[in-house]
Write the structure tokens for this entry.
Amino acid sequence: MFLEKVTELLYPRRCPLCDGLLADREKYICASCRGKIRFIEGPRCMKCGRPLRSTAVEYCDNCRRREHPFVRGFAPFVYRNLCQESLMRFKYDHRAEYAGFYGAAICGFGRELLAEWKPQLILSVPVHRRRLIKRGYNQAEQIANAVSKQTGIPASDRLIRRRRNTKPQKGLTPEERCRNLAGAFTVSKGARFPERVLLVDDIYTTGATMDAMTEVLLKHGVKKVYVACVSIAPGRS
């Protein structure tokens, strides 16, 4: 308890939406920002969870054009406006404490799916050691640990690693993203996996990263891979 108080004095907790300081009774988000939370509503892609404009289609444009090896995925937020600003601070401005809110959002929004999927292990998307040194932490790992803490599902960051320092995916076409990630992930020596694994990341765009990780896991005994991200890029339905 004493250590927690000292940590809060040195690194005060901040609201993930407005970045203001949180009061003692405000666990994840400040009172004034609670009404600003906008979860994805309405029809969603049956593969990746991207919001759809109509119930007449089951899959988004991306998932109709490209087959993904994971079973299914979801995200509570669309990557824009407040969510985009929040994740940028989380990723580049040392706001690791936002992870608790992101984990709670994933667990709350995806409660029924997680209960149905019954994942036995949570894995975060690894970053190369050079990028880890530059940022100070792996944002996906922070979110995965938050989900693990709230669900009781074990999480690990040691079973799969990124062996190449790939270029940032932003700005690349879907084809370039796939080429960029070819051979980027590898399994640690002696790693063992259960049948059902949940992959966690901050942003889902085209699915290239999740596809690359899923393909590696399927080759190492995993039967079903699921995906949960904080946000998903809007697309055409």
Strands lie at 72-74, 77-78, 121-124, 155-156, 160-162, 185-187, 196-204, 224-232. The mean pLDDT is 88.
